[in-house]
Amino acid sequence: CQPHPGSFQEELVIRPLHSGDIYASFQFRTLWDTDFLQEGQKKVSHYRLFPKSLGQVLSKFSVQELHISFTQGFWRTMQWGQPFIPSPPGAELWVWFHDTVSDVDGNWKELTNVLSGIFCASLNFIDMTNTVQPSASFKPLGLGNATDHRFLRYATLPREIVCTENLTPWKKLLPCGSKAGLAVLMKSEKLFHSSFHSQAVHIRPICQQCTSKAWELRQTLNVVFDHYTSGQGKKEWSLFKMFSRTLTEACPLASSSKVYVDITDNPELFELSPATPLLSQAVVLGDRRTYSVYDLTRAETFGQLRSFNLLLRWKGDSGDMLRPLLHAERYVAGFGLQTGEIHTVIYNNHPYRAFPVLLMDSVPWYLQLYIHTLTVTSKSRDNKPSYIHYQPAKDRHRPHLLEMLIQLPPHSMTEVTVQFERALLKWTEYTPDPNHGFYVGSSVVSALVPSMVAMSTNFTQDQPLFSSFVPVKEESSYFVRVYTEPLLVNLPTPDFSMPYNVICLTCTVVAVGYGSFYNLLTRTFQVDEPSPPLAKRLANFIRRIRGVPLLA
Amino acid sequence: MAAPLTLLLIVAVTIRAVLFRSSLAELISERVEVVSPLNAWKRVVEGLALLDLGVSPYSGDVFHETPLMIYLFHFTVDYAEIVFMVSPYFVDCLSCLLASLDRAKIAIGSNNLKSDLLFNFPGCLRHIISFSTCGLNNAIIALFIFCTLKGSALLSGILLALATYQSIYPLTLFAPALLFFLQRLYIPVNLRRSSFWCFTLQYAFIYVGSLVVITGLSFFLLGSWDFIPSVYGFIFSVPDLTPNIGLFWYFFAEMFEHFRLFFICVFQINVFFYTIPLSIKLKEHPVFLIFMQIAIISIFKSYPTVGDVALYMAFLPAWSHLYRFLRNIFLVSCVLLACSALFPVLWHLWIYAGSANSNFYYAITLLFNFGQILLVSDYFYAYLRREHHLTHGLYLKKKDGTEATLVLK
């Protein structure tokens, strides 16, 4: 009987935001000590905690890392701070393939279709026209010193809508499903009635005490509940109000099941009940925060009613929150349907430190970028990027990819502008609602932001999940990825009711040309002799038959 | 002849320089009637910027110029204005030469240098300050015609190869140039004669040889054959549907995918198709044949601009003696003027105001091309009719002595 190495941890972090909203972040982590991709090993067929569908996908397509997220809504960095796991609106998928793969594009195409089936999402719209290979922005988050970006594929579908149909298969991937543990809180009628909803799956190989390789599957669900849409005027939050459920038990398969509540701003801001003696401190996103911990594996957490309901009552008015150090916005400037300009504005709010950021832009081919019009200005002075990787688009084959390393001066605003021209597409290439516009995926700004507080570089088993998602390489900075808004751009449209008419009219004009030239080429000038009257013609005809000379 | 010509040239230079410096230049260089994806200056700058970034200009779909253009502009990008100012002069000078040549041959009429400028102006004004390489292409074609008329077969072959290399359509000018040289050297156009084949092969050898050399040079610039699908594949397969004054863009925007290849072939063959019949009909008149070929190319090519229209219109003064035989000149000029006025209006209404749609612009495109076809066929008719009168007399009589009318039968 083989041992079953692997563990499952679940946690929920509740962070009250200064605007009165509340941010809840679920993380489910499954660790599995096995190696799908090792040659010669018996094909893995026994799955316990790790979902079988994903395991088969990983081994069939030789996937080294997989990150997929479905988001509805846009994360407002200036009001809510930085999220634990950032994600752009719509669907985003980026995958590192193993370096033994020979046909990465073929694997990518099949992978997107399989994932489309697993998550009930229309990921099959991902094809070569919206896939890019970033050269620097999406380094592997797990093991592997892969530097060859030929094995990386990134695609985003900004138009993708997330709904219950995507949540249900996502919940099924959990070991306990939605029957026990924290997943019982995930009811779609409350989750989608929110300002922001994002569910993601992150799979990567990690180092288990660096003796053996293990696969880590993290499923994260971030949701921000709006203070105002809740209906009530009272500033009071509870688990029941947020999720219409309370917790009754931890997942039996989980080795750890915890609820963290961010009480750094307590007791001035809000009152928490039930009280708990457990406290934890963690440095996350460059800030040292204090959390109240509720351990759901212990029976006394549930009290006498066998149900755990958290209650937060707001006391004072929200104060100033820590301004996020990195923030980005994007918009389209210009008028008319011929040209336009994309402006990306990046803010560095650090008072005295400058740091470089990597900006990645993937623009569809039908907006033709003119890279010679690219300008980067900081504090109204030219700021030349130190690294530019630009891959121009090929019509109907691949999009533009622009990656730049820009040094942001301290406490400044940097503006990146580039002009584009809008193309006229073939009438079959427009969506059924062409006047809605075409979406341009979010820009990605990745940076190592200098941290005010020293980050810990050791990874321990007891560390809360939300602080261990991104590997910390050095103490003085932390990794941040900011996504900008997606853009909605209108293209000029032909008249869709006209194909037959256009063909007829254009061919008519060409035929007029042909006819005129044919006439002039095949005919000669002759003096116009009027034709004789009918009687004479008849007489001539009879004479011709008789063989007699004709009349004049 | 020299002094008034010089004076005219100086005046034209001044006007052009003034207009280049004005704000009109930037406005006009963005207009779709004036620049096309093939010859827009903005794209040349983009291609050079890509080269500076270390990316091949042909890896994207924005740059469709030939490598020799990269060679040329890499060093003169700062002096581009001067290049664009100088190149249209070749066309002007040539039209003067043509006018004087033809008149010398036929000895009709008086010196009409001023009428030449008059004809030139509306044509050239439209592309006078356009920042596009169309002016350069026109200059090469004008030089080619000049060398042909002067009788230099070598230079003519080389320049024709250069013009063909720039855009494929001048290939059809091989036949009229050949016919001109044969006529000049008194070699009859008889397929059984060895002298005919001798000269034809010589000329063809010069032409094809220079074309091969130029193409080879282009290969060595960037070390790859990428430019062939990017330039010639682009001209033939018309993937870019940016609106212009031609017939292709809307036709292929509304095309059923199933028939696309068929209609591409039909439309492209249409350009080359008239060469043989026209050469047979006009084998005694190669200069007019050149004019006809250039006009047909300008109307039916895949990405026409007003620069191409100005090229053949600049030669119209050479046939001002045909005026008395033209039948529709008033209608044609009204149509062309009206269309020129309506193009920017309807473009603005479609793209900026949003109150019209693409059909309006497309309708004016149709009308403009129809007007051009009418103009060209009218001149053809007038030419043939004049030839007929030259051989049969100006005042024709019917059998019974009354005044006759001439019809095409």
TrEMBL record, chain A:
Gene designation: LOC107705717
Protein name, per record: GPI transamidase component PIG-T-like
Organism: Sinocyclocheilus rhinocerous
Annotated GO CC locations: GPI-anchor transamidase complex
GO biological process, one term: attachment of GPI anchor to protein
TrEMBL record, chain B:
Alphabetized UniProt keyword annotations: Endoplasmic reticulum, GPI-anchor biosynthesis, Membrane, Signal, Transmembrane, Transmembrane helix
Residues annotated as transmembrane: 82-101, 168-187, 199-225, 231-252, 259-276, 288-316, 328-353, 359-381
Keyword Ribosomal protein annotated: no
Stretch forming the signal peptide: 1-25
Compartments where located: Endoplasmic reticulum membrane
Principal cellular location given in the protein's record: endoplasmic reticulum
A GO cellular component annotation in the UniProt record: GPI-anchor transamidase complex
Pathway(s) it belongs to: Glycolipid biosynthesis; glycosylphosphatidylinositol-anchor biosynthesis
InterPro entries reported in the protein's UniProt record: PIG-U (IPR009600)
Family membership noted in the UniProt record: Belongs to the PIGU family.
Protein name: Phosphatidylinositol glycan anchor biosynthesis class U protein-like
Organism: Sinocyclocheilus rhinocerous
Source species taxonomy: Eukaryota, Metazoa, Chordata, Craniata, Vertebrata
Gene designation per UniProt: LOC107729780
